[in-house]
């Protein structure tokens, strides 16, 4: 299977990138010569990890018929000091909120995504130390 993305320069430091499901704008921050009117490429990589794993976990929540009021993924990532700067350590936090959380099954859903299903997570493991944390917020 092949994915195709087209990214067109809009002038200055801005680009428009189209993937099979939609279009997004990429731009550099003002301190890097852009206008700050688009998403940042490295941060998009973190969104890709969260989206990939989040889709896995959401699917498993549905399959397991788990009761979850809210589900948030927070990611912090450290860049190397030298160029080319890349993420060398990434912390992914899964936050589940609800009155009747099945912690064991939710942790299993996270583990399945992290260890088996999420291809973006696997790509990240090739260049970064991945720290995975799960939090249960009972309401």
Automatic annotation (TrEMBL):
Signal peptide: none annotated. Pfam families: OsmC. This is Putative redox protein. It comes from Sinomicrobium oceani. The lineage of its organism: Bacteria, Pseudomonadati, Bacteroidota, Flavobacteriia, Flavobacteriales.
